[in-house]
Amino acid sequence: MPWRPGQDLLDLLELAAPAACGxxxxxxxxxCPACADALADGGPRRWTPTPCxxxxxxxxxxxxxxxxxxxxxxxxxxxxxADLTPALAVPLRAVLAAALDGSPEHLAALGxxxxxxxxxxxxxxxxxxxxxxxxxxALARTAxxxxxxxxxxxxxxxLGRRVADQAGLDAGQRRxxxxxxxxxxxxxxxxxxxxxxxxxxxxxxxxxxxxxCARALVTAGAGxxxxxxxxxxxxxxxxxxxxxxxxxxxxxxxxx
Length: 256
Description:
Radius of gyration: 18 Å
Distance between the termini: 19 Å
CATH topology: Rossmann fold
Number of strands: 8
CATH class: Alpha Beta
Shape: globular
Largest sheet: 6 strands, mixed
Number of helices: 10
Number of domains: 1
Structural class: alpha/beta
C-alpha cells in the first residue's frame, strides 16, 4: 500500500483518540456501551429475503441495517473507521455461533476436528486498495481469533470479471449483474473441496451476493454452504396500505 503522509497521520490519531462513537457519535469514545448493547439487541437469527432468489444459502444475521448499525457499518467500511473492527466482531461472533448451531453438517465437521473454512465475500480490487485492506476479511479474522485452527479464514473468493455498482439496481438487475462473477481462487480450491463452508459479509440485502458466493463454492466442490452477516436491510413497500404492513428486506447501497 502506498504511503500517504497526511492520511496516515490522521489514521494513527483516530486510532489513538477516536473523535466519536461509530454508532451514535458520542464524543471521545470509539464505541459506547449503549451502542454495543443496542447492536446486540437484534440477536442472531435465521434470515431469508423476500423474494428469495434461487440458490440462496441458509443465512444468519445480526441486527437490522438502520440507525446506529447503518452508521457504524458505513463508517467502518468507507468512512475511515477501521478502528471499529473489534467492536463489530463481537456481534458477528455471535452470528457465527448461531449459524454453526443451526447446521448439523458444520457441527459434525467441527466435531471431527474440522476444518470449516470461512470465506469473506469478495471485494472489488479498487475498493480494497482504497481501504488499505479487505475489510470483511479483517472482520472475520478478528471475530475468529483463537478459533482459526478449526475455522480458518480463507480469502478464496474473488470477482472474476468487472461488475457494475449495485446501487440503484433492483433485485433482478443485481442477480444478472453478479451472475457468474464470483470464482474460487485456484489456490483455495483444495481448502474448500469437500468441506462445509461459511460465507461472511457485512450486510445481506436481496441476497444476490450470497447466492453467487455459494454457487462458486459448490462449483469448486465445496460441501454445504451457510452464510453470516452483521445486518440485514429493510425496505418499505412503495404503497403500504397501512403502517402495520411489513415490507420485504432488500439491499442498501451497492455491493463492491
